[in-house]
Amino acid sequence: MFATPLPVTQHLGRLQLADLAVDSFPYTSHTTSPYTSHTRGSDALWVGVPLATKICSAFASRVVASLLTNVGLPELIATSDEDYLALLIGLAPDRDRLRKVRERLAHSRLSCPLFDTEGFPSNLLDLYEAIWRQELRGERKPIDLRA
Fold first, then answer.
1. For FRET with 41, which of 2, 28, 67, 145 sits at 20 to 30 Å CA-CA?
2. Assigned domain for 3 exists
3. 52 lies in a domain?
């Protein structure tokens, strides 16, 4: 569905009526947009709409895959044109499967780091401190703050 631009709050209200958001590629919907009529990946997930995407090699095509992984829905990430089409054809008409995905998304929305706006500043500070400690030790390796 294509729709006319609306103010953000109205856009989000309309967006939650969708059954499934279909991402674009090779440039995925990301997390921010200057246009209120453009669905941001994080907006769709925030209002509880499952979002299917296809991941490619460029950074700009991996953003929504990261969002979906963060909210615990990696099965909505396709790796090829064929897989993406199969995912969409299989998911769109399957009301029970969509309902289950929406339920998982609703649960995860309240607990995943992606939407933890209160914990984000503290977590970011912890990450900066861990990066600085590595720098002082002359190290460069992945940092897992959950460890």
1. 145
2. no
3. yes
Mean pLDDT of the chain: 87
Model pTM score: 0.78
CA torsion through residues 62, 63, 65, 70, sign: positive
**At 92, which CATH number?**
3.40.50.2000
Same domain, 133 and 75: no
Residue 74: which pLDDT band, with cuts at 50, 70 and 90? Answer: very high
Give pLDDT tens digits for 6-26. Answer: 888 888 899 899 999 998 877
